[in-house]
Amino acid sequence: MTLLSSAPPGAPATRSAPPAPGRTPRRKQGGVILAVPALAWYLLFMVGPLVAIFVIAALHWPGMLQPVSFAGLGNVRTVLADPVFTDALVNTGIQLAVALPVMIVGAYMLGYYVAQRPPGHRFLRYLLFIPGLISTPAKAMVFYAVLSPDGLFNGALNKAGLGSLTDAWLASPSTALACLIVLDVWSGIGFTAVLFAARLGSVPDEVGEAAQLDGAGHWRAMWRIHFPMIRDFVGVVTMLQFLWTLFGSAQNVLLLTQGGPGSSSTTLSFLVYQKAFIAADLGYSQTVGVFLFLAGLAGLLTIRRVFRQNY
């Protein structure tokens, strides 16, 4: 199909020649060239390490400078027969099952409250954002000062006449994991609430006004009207917090409990670190990394299905 080109008045119309078949427009060629560095970066630093995890998981590699031999499925059998791996798997499941719902529901409620612009809401936004500005070692030091045997929490219990309830919270098998979960929730709930408040702020005011005219209270408006409108965004935030909790828990475990007592607070991400950098068993470590990757993939697909994501 040919197009008539514009011409001055009185001049004869000329026909523009169609592009030759098989030739790519220069603009598209330039776009492809500009995308090559980003694609190379992605393949090298994203796809490359992912492939390396599966390759190393099939090797017997007892340290960086040690000889390497092919192990096949031997590492998988070793990992599945290890009770420490079972404990890490259970602990990770408990951590996700408790921290993720508490964080998302609590953050959404806080975000909804801030989005209503109560008195001092600007200051409240900054206050909720503070845990996200504190480094992980600093947060760990705060929690250690609070939960150590002679820390602030036990001191408060003694002052209140509840000395029988004091405990070495971070050194007790029954409470070490719970303390880490509390730290995860405290670290993430404020930042997530600010994200929810920003998204809820884009909902038209007429929606809330119409809900009030229909007699809906804040609770009903929050869950029956506003929540369905930002359902996709809730799914995205849930995915982000799921990944952060699943893959980022190793740093808190390392700083506060070292996975103990025993393996009562060992998580999958910490087990990857422990076997790689302490036990120098790279094959075992990356086999756990494969299980961790599969758990993350399954979790993302589940969250996507629950929130009916369209991407």
UniProtKB/TrEMBL annotation:
It comes from the Bacteria. This is Sugar ABC transporter permease. It comes from Streptomyces fungicidicus. The lineage of its organism: Bacteria, Bacillati, Actinomycetota, Actinomycetes, Kitasatosporales.
